[in-house]
Amino acid sequence: MEQVVVAAAAESRRRTSVIATSLIAVALIVVSIVFAANTPWYFVFKMLHVGAAVVWVGGGLFITICAVLAELARDDDQLLQIGHWAETVAGRVFPVMSFVVLGFGIAMTSNGDIPYNQFWIIFGLVAWALSAATGILFLGPESKRLNKAAAEHGPQAPEVQARLRRILLVVRVDVALMFLIVFDMVAKPFSY
User: Fold this and answer.
1) Which of 91 and 103 is assigned the larger pLDDT?
2) Which domain holds residue 152?
3) DSSP type of residue 161
4) Could you tell me the CA-to-CA distances from 54 to 123, 182, 188 in Å, in that order?
């Protein structure tokens, strides 16, 4: 009987969470459309470009911070759980967000008649390509290999630990690169 009550309470919390999240998402979309409807296209593109960058960069930073904290705590199980979430969520969301960032950056540049021969744009495009390629060609596939190896050999296996450390190093470099892109986009170095 107690298990039924606990399961019903958990289901109720899940339903409440889904409803609340859905309402918040609808409100965000409605307000964003209202903002966009009263704004020049350049700023609409900028809003979407920055919003996608927040998800991409912020998500990468969050995963990195969680991984560093788990690493400092010497919690390999937690590190593997973070690796699982990186594969499950980041592997699906970050590539999409990186292309949304690129697409709306190009739209913004074209709409604003901004020439592509400026250092900050060239740096941003090259760094974007490096970061996107890192995520798509290395982090995604390597996270899958890590999770497969952990399931087969256990979290303490040398292969698992080596893959985990390699991923953590690459993620740190990638997050630093993404922040350099943000700083570049804001400061527009060598443009004045």
Assistant:
1) 103
2) 40-187
3) H
4) 19, 10, 18
The reply to whether 192 falls in a domain is no
Tell me, yes or no, whether 4 and 80 share the same domain.
Answer: no
Question: pTM of the full predicted structure?
Answer: 0.83
Do both 113 and 127 map to the same domain? yes
Using CA atoms, how far residue 124 sits from 32, 142, 185, in Å, is 26, 25, 7
Please enumerate in sequence order all residues whose Cβ is within 8 A of that of 76, keeping only pairs 6 or more positions apart, or say none: 70, 155, 156, 161, 164
Identify whether residues 166 and 125 lie together within a single domain: yes
Q: Per this entry, what is the length of the chain?
A: 192
For residue 143, the model assigns a pLDDT of 83
Per-residue model confidence as pLDDT tens digits over 1-41: 777 777 788 888 999 999 999 999 999 999 999 999 989 99
State the total domains in the chain.
2
Name the DSSP letter for residue 112: T
154: pLDDT strictly greater than 80: yes
